[in-house]
């Protein structure tokens, strides 16, 4: 089966456990959240072109709709031979064919831009894992269609970066509001200020908060909630 996530490594689980212990020791509300939701599952994805496209597709739509659209796009790109989900294969699909998979006009342009960038080497999936967070973010966000949120999610779940803090994420803001008893959702500036004390484990804090939001909002428990679901 294509695009399966890599198996969880014991060292990654131990690292997540240690990060959670440190976060709970620094902030009692994290201990409260952890008690409510339990250990956060491993949601890593392969750091490849297919999963970058999938993250873009998942933006601002429901989990169910995203899964349906992704299934159609994956089948269209891979073809009957179940080939590799590659930039070259995607670029062979016409705009009407991509629209028929369920992609909006902007997302058709975005995935095609990403395919061109991957084909040309502007996005180098072999180099990305070796780059520092800021450099990896820059490589991704220089491509039209890849914003800060998309790049941050890719770094967190594909490149396994522990200190990424997607402060623009609405679901994360709502989780912060609920857990910390705030009257309104914190803005990006306040999110960043509150999270400063959680370095270098802000990404683990975000995963715990997403899970807390999912549970308290009585949604399907998942480590990541799309922006529109808040």
Give keywords:
disordered N terminus, disordered C terminus, mainly alpha, 58% helix, 230 residues
Brief synopsis:
By secondary structure, this protein is mostly helical.
Describe this structure in words.
By secondary structure, the chain is an all-alpha fold. It is built from twelve helices and no strands. The chain has helices spanning 10-26, 28-37, 49-58, 63-78, 87-91, 95-100, 105-120, 133-141, 148-157, 170-180, 188-195, 202-216. It starts with 9 loop residues before the first helix and ends in a 14-residue tail after the last helix.
Strand percentage: under 5%
Number of strands: 0
Instruction: Tell me about the largest β-sheet.
Output: none
Give the oligomeric state: single chain
Q: Please tell me the overall pLDDT.
A: 89
Topology, element by element:
Layout: H1 10-26, H2 28-37, H3 49-58, H4 63-78, H5 87-91, H6 95-100, H7 105-120, H8 133-141, H9 148-157, H10 170-180, H11 188-195, H12 202-216
């Amino acid at each position: 089966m294509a695009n399966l996530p890599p198996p969880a490594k014991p060292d990654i689980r131990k690292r997540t456990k240690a990060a959670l212990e440190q976060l709970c020791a620094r902030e009692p509300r994290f201990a409260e959240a952890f008690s409510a939701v339990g250990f956060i599952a491993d949601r890593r994805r392969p750091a490849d072109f297919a999963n970058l496209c999938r993250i873009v597709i998942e933006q601002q739509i429901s989990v169910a709709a995203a899964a349906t659209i992704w299934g159609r796009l994956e089948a269209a790109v891979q073809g009957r031979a179940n080939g590799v989900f590659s930039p070259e294969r995607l670029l062979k699909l016409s705009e009407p064919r991509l629209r028929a998979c369920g992609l909006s006009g902007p997302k058709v342009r975005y995935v095609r831009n990403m395919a061109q960038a991957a084909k040309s080497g502007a996005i180098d999936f072999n180099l990305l894992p070796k780059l520092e967070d800021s450099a990896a973010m820059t490589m991704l966000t220089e491509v039209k269609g890849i914003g800060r949120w998309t790049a941050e999610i890719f770094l967190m779940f594909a490149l396994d970066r522990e200190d990424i803090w997607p402060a623009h994420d609405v679901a994360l803001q709502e989780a912060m509001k609920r857990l910390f008893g705030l009257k309104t959702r914190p803005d990006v500036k306040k999110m960043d200020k509150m999270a400063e004390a959680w370095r270098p484990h802000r990404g683990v804090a975000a995963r715990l908060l997403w899970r807390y939001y999912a549970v308290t909002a009585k949604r399907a428990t998942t480590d990541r909630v799309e922006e529109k679901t808040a």
